[in-house]
Design brief:
This protein has 725 residues and is an alpha+beta fold. 46% of the residues lie in helices and 13% in strands. The strands form 3 sheets. Strands 9, 10, 11, 12, 13, 14, 15, 16, 17 and 18 form a 10-stranded mixed β-sheet that branches. α10 packs across α11 and α15 crosses α16. The structure holds adenosine-5'-diphosphate (ADP) and magnesium ion (MG).
Length: 725
């Protein structure tokens, strides 16, 4: 497909774009539609018998075990509600380890003996489903003879009705497990980890005088970055279409260096898309809050309000699906890939997290009294210890072939996991390291004495955008997660390592209390011990600087650059012991996650390599050869006419053409190599052989893009894709 016909047509189509007609009435208030399609507490209270309602709420709010007897009553109310909303089908929604969302749709209608059909939805249909699970990755957890898995209703995430012009569907969030009860999804471990973290956080709260603390949960506010490109361009790029990122493309003359896009005015077309998505999100009860342009041209961000981690994770998946669908309606494609364009900022999904309950709020908010502050510092110290001890697991929780392009590139946190505390908190911990904190920077004098701690500021102070793990005033922000991944994985890890730290600290403090020691003194001692042993992970400097990796190495902090360096962290003895202790994963489940991580890595790069070969051989090379022929004909014609011929242009294009041919041959050979002895060997082959071979092809092709006549160039350019919206 050489020749620029497709490109030109795409550009004409972009120019001719007419926005879809407004989808909502001007009189409609956002509050009116919020949660309209959600089987939420208000609906349940209206429709469920009181005892059933109470029982379900106890599960949702207080983590009580679900009473098996409530299934039928809830199912019946849910069915009536969904039918009134125009639903014809129901679906168990689950989150397999591909990182995607899976659904199996069934009709409500069941035939009855007189030949007609009745809408049926029994309790057992609500609570359990049996999708054919054999094609989902399981990393060795299932043999084919036991290929079944089942889905089970998760009442802590409300059911909702998903609209479609051709009929609506009742969607039921579920966990997905094997017949032997092992997790095949992202939700099951998240729920387990939530429970473990809550239990030990409550022990700490009890020590600080909350006699009967409410259930502690983790909250998550994910900031989602994404790109929008016109769909005409998208469809003309086989690489974007199949791999979600460009595998070719020379740097545009104007990139993001002017910083003129960040927080700039949102293009009208994009604004129309954002309003449309927000309306859909509102209906689904997803609290979309802020929206703005991001650093790169064509890049944007949405941040919904934080919610309980499990709900936030489900909502995040639903948000991505909604964005994809609505972007198409507006003639655009929404790209969630971490690095769709080389040399341009990548996209992340910052995971803001806190722990707390309605009684204490976020445990990461410093209080007004020394006592409250001591509690705050204990929780912060728990984070410091957790991140230091389990940095490798945090790194592994964000490991993917796609995120590898982003981490450590110049706009995303490095692969070295460290914590940013801000000047003030760092100063306080600095004092604690020396024995006791007696003053708080910027807040004047403090009460002196071992039983007191400094009054801490409530404003977050400074910001550091280069840190992978930053304290931001009332929460921590984990910035390494990739834009495409589910937040469930990182949140599961955070919950589990926090459970471990809180357990460790609670055990020491409980013993001190039991031994009749002074509590404040015991707290001081423990804080000093933790900051002394784990302070190496605290880094307030510039994470992008060249000196940081050197400094980090001196501090003994790991720099696990690629997915293959990070994944083995999952199967170290201490990691497996940790997850087993807190009943989040058993050994087999950990091994399966490791295997699936390798498998996904290999699959991703394999697809990219094959597309590189195809586009290189069938689009780029023919265009370049045609141009070369044109130049050669020109030289020959000039010579024949007795004019001195300039061969510079011909030579200039011939060099990269030769390189491209060599590169394509090498890539083809690398793809043909037989390495199928183990998942690790295959993944290593992808990293060591395929990635460099793809880069060589791209290098030659990108050079050609700058030489070949524009009317022959087949692929939409970076300039066109990034700046035409
Ligand atoms: P910034 O760009 O300054 O990091 P944003 O407003 O874009 O901030 O996003 C902040 C995210 O953090 C939002 O999703 C917000 O709901 C979330 N957040 C705020 N407070 C908390 C908290 N206590 N726990 C978890 N997430 C929080
Ligand atoms: Mg942020």
């Amino acid at each position: 497909m050489s020749g620029n016909r497709v490109r030109l047509q795409a550009i004409r189509d972009v120019e001719a774009y007419v926005p879809p007609s407004a989808s909502f009435e001007e009189s409609e208030a956002p509050g009116q539609i919020f949660g309209e399609n959600v089987f939420n507490k208000v609906v349940m209270q209206k429709r469920l018998p009181k005892s059933v309602y109470k029982s379900v709420i106890a599960t949702i709010d207080h983590g009580a075990k679900l009473d098996p007897l409530v299934g039928d009553a809830v199912a019946s109310a849910m069915k009536d509600w969904a039918l009134e909303k125009g639903a014809t089908h129901y679906a168990h929604v689950f989150y397999p380890l591909t990182g995607l969302t899976a659904e199996k749709h069934d009709s409500f209608l069941e035939p009855v003996s007189d030949g007609s059909a009745l809408a049926e939805f029994a309790g057992k249909t609500l609570t359990q489903g049996e999708p054919d699970a054999s094609s989902f990755p399981n990393g060795g957890l299932r043999n084919t003879f036991e290929a079944r898995g089942y889905t089970a209703w998760d009442p802590t995430s409300p059911a909702y009705v998903l609209e479609n012009p051709n009929g609506n569907t009742l969607c039921i969030p579920t966990v997905f497990v094997s017949m032997t009860g092992e997790a095949l999804d992202h939700k099951t471990p998240l729920l387990r980890s939530q429970q473990a973290m809550g239990e030990h956080a409550e022990r700490i709260l009890k020590l600080f005088g909350h006699t009967n603390p409410e259930h502690v949960v983790s909250f998550c506010g994910p900031e989602q970055e994404y790109f929008l490109v016109d769909r005409h361009f998208f469809l003309a790029r086989p690489d974007l279409l199949n791999a979600g990122r460009t595998l070719f493309g020379a740097k545009p003359p104007k990139g993001q260096e002017f910083d003129d896009h960040y927080f700039g005015a949102i293009p009208e077309r994009v604004l129309g898309f954002m309003m449309d998505t927000e309306r859909e999100l509102f209906k689904l009860g997803i609290p979309a809050k802020t929206r703005h342009n991001e650093v790169a041209p064509g890049q944007f961000e949405i941040a919904p309000m934080f919610e309980k981690a499990n709900l936030a994770a489900d909502h995040q998946q639903l948000l991505m699906t909604t964005f994809k669908t609505i972007a198409k309606k507006h003639g655009m494609e929404c790209l969630f890939h971490e690095k769709p364009f080389a040399g341009v900022n990548g996209s992340g999904k910052h995971v803001n997290f806190s722990l707390g309950n309605s009684e204490v709020g976020s445990v990461f908010v410093p209080g007004d009294t020394p006592h409250e502050n001591a509690q705050f510092l204990v929780f912060c110290a728990a984070v410091i210890r957790a991140v230091h001890l389990y940095a490798g697991l945090l790194r592994a929780s964000v490991a993917s072939a796609t995120n590898d392009h982003r981490l450590g590139a110049n706009e995303a946190p490095p692969a070295i996991i460290s914590i940013f505390l801000g000047d003030q908190l760092q100063d306080v911990f600095g004092q604690i390291a020396k024995g006791a904190a007696t003053s708080s920077k910027g807040k004047g004098t403090m009460i002196i004495g071992v039983d007191t701690l400094p009054i801490l500021p409530t404003d977050p102070g400074d910001r550091n955008r280069t840190s992978p793990f930053a304290f931001t005033g009332n929460r921590f922000e984990f910035r390494a997660p990739g834009s495409m991944q589910s937040v469930a994985g990182p949140m599961t890890t955070i919950n589990t390592i926090m459970a471990d730290s809180l357990d460790y600290m609670a055990t020491i403090l409980e013993k001190a209390v039991a031994d009749g020691e002074d509590f404040d003194k015991a707290v001081q001692l423990l804080l000093t011990e933790i900051i002394t042993e784990h302070g190496a992970v605290v880094f307030n400097g510039d994470g992008y600087s060249d000196s940081w990796p050197i400094e980090a190495e001196k501090r003994g902090l790991a720099n696990l650059k690629t997915t293959l360096d990070a994944l083995p962290e999952l199967i170290t003895e201490p990691a497996m012991a940790l997850f087993e202790k807190y009943k989040v994963f058993n050994h087999r489940e950990m091994h399966s996650r490791y295997e699936i991580g390798l498998e996904q890595y290999t699959l991703t790069i394999g697809v990219e390599a094959r597309i590189t070969l195809e586009v290189g051989a069938t689009s780029v090379l023919p265009a370049a050869v045609r141009y070369q022929t044109e130049l050669a004909a020109n030289v020959a014609a000039l010579k024949a006419a007795g004019v001195e011929a300039d061969t510079d242009a011909l030579l200039a294009v011939s060099g990269p053409i030769a390189d491209l041919k060599t590169g394509l041959a090498a890539l083809k050979a690398a793809l043909a190599e037989d390495v199928a002895h183990s998942a690790l060997a295959e993944a290593e082959h992808a990293r060591e052989a395929l990635l460099p071979a793809m880069l060589a092809v791209r290098g030659a092709a990108d050079k050609l893009e700058e030489l070949v006549a524009d009317d022959l160039w087949p692929l939409p350019t970076y300039q066109e894709m990034l700046f035409m919206l």
